[in-house]
Amino acid sequence: MYKRLKEGFMKRREFIKQTAAATAASFVITSGILVCGSRNDETDRATRAYRQKKYQIDMAPDRPLLAAAYSKDYRKAVASAITALGGIEFFIAKGDKVVIKPNIGWDRTSEQGANTHPEVVAELTRLCLLAGAGKVTIVDVPCNDPRRTYNRSGIKAAAENEGADVIIADDSHFAKIDFGLNSLGGWKVLKPVLECDKLINVPVVKHHSLPGITSGMKNWFGVLTGPRNRLHQDINYNIAELARLFQPTLTVEDATRVMQRNGPTGGRIEDVTSYDCIVASTDQVAADSYVTRFLDKKPSDFPYIKLAENMGLGTSHPPDDKIAEIDV
Amino acid sequence: MRKLTLLRTISQTLFFLLFVYFIFATQYSYSPDKEGVSGWLKLFFDINPLNLTGVSIAAGVLYSTLALGFIILITTIFFGRYFCGWICPLGSLNHFFSSFKSERKKHRGKALMESNIHKSYQGLKYYLLVILILMAVLGSLQTGIFDPISILGRSLAMVILPAVTLLLKSLYGWLLSSDYYPLVLLGEGLYRISVKLFLPVKQPHFNGIFWLALIFGLIVIANRIYTRFWCRALCPLGALLGFLASFSIFGLKIDEEACDDCNKCLLHCQGGDNPHKELPHHRGECHLCLNCVYDCPRNALSFGFFGDRKKIKTKPQVTRRMVIFAGLAGLLAVPTLRSGIGRNFKTKPKLIRPPGSLDEEKFLARCIRCGQCMKICPTNAIHPTMLEAGWEGIFTPILIPVIGYCEYNCILCGQSCPTGAISPLTIEMKQGKGDYQPVNIGTAFIDRGRCLPWAFDTDCIVCEEWCPISPKAIQLKTEKVISTDGKEITLRRPYVNAELCNGCGACEYACPVEGNKAVYVNSVGESRNPDNEMIMHRPKKLR
Prior knowledge:
By secondary structure, chain A is α/β, with parallel strands linked by helices. Chain A has helices at residues 2-45, 74-85, 88-91, 118-130, 146-152, 155-161, 191-195, 235-245, 284-291, 303-310; strands at residues 48-49, 66-70, 97-102, 135-140, 165-168, 174-178, 186-190, 198-202, 204-208, 212-214, 224-225, 250-259, 272-281, 323-327. In chain A, strands 2, 3, 4, 5, 8, 9, 10, 12, 13 and 14 form a 10-stranded mixed beta sheet that branches. Chain A has a 4-stranded mixed beta sheet with strand order 1-6-7-11. By secondary structure, chain B is mainly alpha-helical. Chain B has a domain at 3-152 and 213-313. In chain B, 42% of the residues lie in helices and 8% in strands.
């Protein structure tokens, strides 16, 4: 009798133990599921309205609006174009958080002209740090795998060498922003871009079959993630709208080598023509208009430039005395 | 005198951790001089003698790196199944989980001891090996499905790592979205550290991992009932090594004088090989774990060369009748599986193999389902099949372009393949530079009923934008059309140039028409199979 009681007791203890274990296990699993499931809600909760930031510096009237420097030495071209606009110290204050947004969209080498040239990004980094910038961040949301594009373009190595912080964006780098516009409703936007003091747009100039050209304003596609492929359905309007939302301190366009056809990916050296030109401007419309000549086109061939001009974002035909063309 | 078992535990731990490291490190990494992946990362698949045996028999070739398997094969003939007890990472995992036995009486003490006595079910693995080898003789290599190294590799890469990543990223995401700043900081710090250590930047996800997870789960759970059930009963690598080990000159020696029949040697026996004087010792089942040597209170057991051959069961415990039956089953399985329409490529438009894959026949004679190509693919394009490749091709690699596309400048899958089922291409070979013909894995097709410019009068061209080939394999024609509301509009409509298309699937991946994409890739046009061509490819110089 005693033995049976004891066995019963043991069984009960075992039962309690197992119940506790099962409860603990289900608690862990449920909380795991809740954590996994709550992920989207958390980002939704964090959706915030876009507060437009002024990255621009008011230009002195005696300065040129746009500088185009021609040189085989791309670093020299970048430096002299910016000097012509008033020097980097004019744009970057001490301790500024600077974001440089190049085009690192595709898994291509620098000669193929699908991405911004690494020398251009490196020189800009050097200049910004020289002017006393607190931190220089290089970031893009590439189309191809970011690890591949950052490395093959040469931008990661070149920029890190100059002391920039090169970010491969993941979920933690995005904030959900409501732009409050028809076609651009809620988007995940790069936090570094939203949080910086100065924003420098460093696109590469190349062919793109839908808007015809991709340069400065189109480069803002790369601060968004999500269904970007839907933006193409009204691409001219969307380019202009994004350019209105992100008006950078400086636009430095890389037209050192320009992909003439099969853009925006290209892939053959034959698709690329050398122009050895760097265009710097505080007016992204003016910069985009200037570089159209490298594809043998006029600004009026591109509806998005006209749309942006009508929005008051800049001028497509700056007066000749506002353009500085430099041969270095 | 526990030194040697401690040494064994250290060896097991180190090899297990090394294996986990190799699997986790099998991913895109960049060095300025060389694009690619270190050959060391597939070491465990190279030294696996089951791969050597299977691939050599099925494909009829001795693949260079697999020759490392001879090291294990030959040493096993002399020293026994040390691989199972000291090296095999799945074996070590099973060993670890076997040590947590149920508290219940029926799994303890006498019951535990009796469960470690050699059982007839341990012969199953030999029958399985016979089936697999005879299937391989007919050119169907199925060893990979049951190979312990492949199983653990697949499970780590496709089940455990993605699950851990999802869980950790959710946790970090939760921390990062907190309103309390120290929590945010903690999340940020933990995230950066784990990305540096092992966490993939991009959340990996794999097609149909349920079955992989189930198999792995069952193997692990079985240890709770029978010590190393998988290793004893089913592992074909264990069977191969066990067969060789039964000839080995090194093994257990029993001092019958000293033995007082206490049965303690049976308590922690891993292999179920009867290290007891009154039971027949099976040298082919012994994992050389050395537990019995130290469990024996009277030092009656020791390991050494030769020994009393009369007391040792040298042959695997199988019956001739069953071996013949298993052999027949293996021989019949292949024609049975192949006689249906299952292998006919014409019914498998979605069977898109990684670039450089051999012709299906040769591919199935080499693929060991290790999952290396799936793990390394930087775009997460390669997935294990369920039945997409037929019953013969379970867990073989397939591209699912909706999830990921084949990166034009990437050759990592071929480099990581241990058996050459996917040939190690160079960029020039893959892209068809110089004298090479480009390697095509399929052809893209436009679904005009879904495509925005074709069906909905809307500009789009994302497929053309993404096409990595120059000149573009997707070309646009500007067409004047009457829209549905009667206006004349101009649209750019995509057309595929089948001569140029390599089937990479970037267009399908990028197409904004979700679900059934408006541009999709089929395997037709793949260069590995001349019978699956659609158009006459002209020689390069004539183009």
